[in-house]
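To whoever is covering the structure queue this week,

Two jobs came back overnight. Logging them here so there's a record in the thread.

Job A:
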Amino acid sequence: MALYDRDYVKNNSVAREEVEVQTRQGDLSTFIKATYQLFAATMISGAAGAYVGIGIADVIAANYLWIAIPWMLFGMFGLMMVKDKTPLNYIVLFAFTFVGGIILAPLLSRVLGMSGGGALVANAFITTSVIFGSLSIYAMNSKSDFSSWGKPLMIALVIVIVSMLLNAFVFHSPMLHVFMLGGIVLLMSGFVLYDTQNIIKGAYGTPIEGAFALYLNFFNMFSAILQIFGIFGSDD
């Protein structure tokens, strides 16, 4: 008789592996749920900021760079510095998204002032939501790996930003501006695929990082689409 039952040991090892896999899957499921709950909360925070900002849209527009540049720098560095420090990380996240809504106020105010402006804003939001949701579902179910898209997307983002700055201060071409807005929509679509897949694979350290990435994707996509709708919906 053998000193021990090898099948018993093997079966126990398999069982332990199955439990570990189930535990990891459970943890990842909890992580994904927390990320998308936070993302939904950031959308509400951003909407609240836009509501507040509409009443002072002229003031925001007159001081736009003094608000937008610190906001971008704060988002790039501030949140990442406190991402593991609860509750400060949540305070910083919602402060950032609230101010993001305020920054959108001049654009929203301008479009709302057009004929049928309310419908333009609503259609831009619906269009953004449909594109964003469709891409998210595709990323979750696709067998394609988008994890290698990070570097090319960042390079493309830099190119688009530089091009928009050149157009704003040098070329002043309305047509080029429209093309750049279309480029932002395509670029953010790529980021949605990339970030969504990173979230479902557990590539982010905290739900806050994933929610922050999704918020920026939606924010930039909505801003670009709203500008396009505003341009083509204008009577001028």
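Job B:
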Amino acid sequence: MSSLPVGVIDIGSNSIKILVAARNETGTLTSLHYRTIDARISAGISHAEPRLTEEGMTRGLVAITSLLGDAVTHTPAQTILVATSAVRDALNGADFIARVHTATGHTIRLLSGDEEANLIGRGLTCDPALANLRDFYVFDLGGGSLECLAFRDRRIAQAVSLQLGCVRLTEKFVTDPTTAFTANHAIAIATYTRDVIARSGFKFSLPPTAAAIGTGGTVTTVRTIIGARQSQTLAQTSTQIPLADLCTLLDELGALPLAERQKIPGLPPARADVFPTALATVITLAELGGFTAFENSLYNLRWGLVAEALD
């Protein structure tokens, strides 16, 4: 017997997304609707005392209101709103949560880093394409944070949430994102990423055959760019993203000023300023883990929250 649908709105640092999903007759989670709005509520997230700006909160509220309208058309049993790194770290995050509640009547669940990492892991195990994997890594790179997980026999053995999001690191290391992304930028980001991961205690200790799964906007955007160049939809592209392709894309896009980067088919203009940083971070992960490719999955935090609600 199929379930009533559940809606989840994920208020991230760089984008705000909705997923409406339900269980079908076989018990498999099925997407009924999804959409992403690039709202960038996280400007200033790298500051010592980060605050959400008035403009960012306004963009966020407009996006949330629009996505709530999407949810209504599918009459979900419930619609869950969650917020992650940008709201979690902002000194005025509670003000934004209160503003959303006043405007919409919905309460935002503020996820801790550990909750976010574990729910991403739960979402990944809902992906039918990964059903045969036993030992694997999962990396979800957002605007504010990077979640790193290691699964042994399909159970989470390690899970950390690190302040290595692409918006955060761009603000920290790229003085002028309108200009080309240089080798010095890449080296600084790689060095910092290696140091933060080392200090976190996260270990690349799975067998050498363990797959690396990439979720979140960065790896999906790489697939979208590849698809645009091959006149393919996202669904038609390969889910395997070789490390060599990531390096080539960083060399190509990093050499461009922002105005030219924003014209790249498949790259959302609102992400073009932080995309080189995101690529440099993902490449560093591959080098640390000895990965030659990432497997892209679209099952992430939102799927984990749907699974949690339906269970």
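Note for Job B: The longest strand covers residues 29-37.

Please reply-all if you pick these up so we don't duplicate work.
Q.
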